[in-house]
Write a structure and sequence with these properties.
The protein is of the alpha/beta class and 243 residues long. 29% of the residues lie in helices and 19% in strands. Strand 7 and strand 8 form a beta hairpin. Helix 5 packs parallel to helix 6.
Length: 243
């Protein structure tokens, strides 16, 4: 939670997090599917009741926030939420519907099946990022398949450059015909907790605004259970550009 507080304190209005669901259907803001790496104890989140996940501490100190915690604590922010597991699809959709926050979220997943399921459950008012197959079509042909409203991509993947001038032109052309926006995501160095900003000049950001790097601020915001500028540990949070 402290990482989110730091991001909001720096003035960021767009924040990204990953989510999983516990055995009893509680949606938690956490990157890993188990607790061993960041909490020093075994246990897959999907196989543990929330009471056990809530008792875990990231780096021995920080609790794992629920999605409800974030929605209640920061009513002014917009959340980009990466659904990291099949088990989280239904609880995530239910939580968003219960809180009536379709206007505050954009949902993402590498899994095309998860994205399709979330779209079916939440309807046409849901903002989603392109999943893997949709991104492949956009990258190869410049066509947006129609349902995605954002393209969130790494600069490079598996030795291949994804964010090329051609891709940016294609995404820009697609965005002029649909509601598609394109944002190249930051590459994080988890070992040191620092960010390595490899975005090329001119990368398109949401609504056409240039991406504002976390490096432009006097402090970096922490991510993934690694230490940030103040030496604190947290769950998982990425920062997105200010409007």
């Amino acid at each position: 939670m402290r990482a989110f507080e730091q991001a909001v304190g720096l003035g960021y209005h767009y924040v990204e997090t990953d989510v999983h669901a516990t055995l009893d259907g509680v949606v938690v803001a956490f990157h890993d599917d188990d607790l061993s790496r960041t909490c020093g104890r075994p246990g897959r989140i999907s196989e543990l009741p929330y009471a056990e996940v809530a008792a875990a501490r990231v780096d021995g100190t920080e609790t794992i926030p629920t999605l409800r915690d974030l929605l209640d604590a920061f009513p002014e922010i917009r959340l980009n939420i990466d659904c990291k597991s099949d088990a989280a699809v239904a609880p995530l959709a239910d939580e968003i519907a219960k809180h009536d926050v379709l206007d505050r979220v954009c949902l993402a997943s590498f899994s095309d099946a998860r994205i399709r399921s979330l779209r079916r459950r939440l309807g046409a008012g849901l903002c989603t990022a392109a999943a893997t197959r949709e991104l492949a079509v956009l990258w190869a042909t410049g066509r947006n398949l129609g349902d995605a409203m954002a393209a969130q991509v790494p600069v490079r993947q598996a030795g291949m450059t994804v964010v090329t001038e051609r891709f940016i032109r294609s995404a820009s052309t697609a965005s002029s015909k649909t509601d598609l926006s394109c944002c190249a995501m930051c590459s994080w160095n988890g070992a040191s907790g620092s960010t390595e900003d490899r975005r090329p000049a001119g990368t398109v950001a949401r609504n056409g605004r240039p991406y504002r790097s976390a490096r432009d601020d006097p402090e970096h915001v922490e991510r993934g259970g690694h230490r940030g500028p103040a030496g604190h540990a947290s769950g998982d949070v990425d920062v997105c550009p200010r409007r």
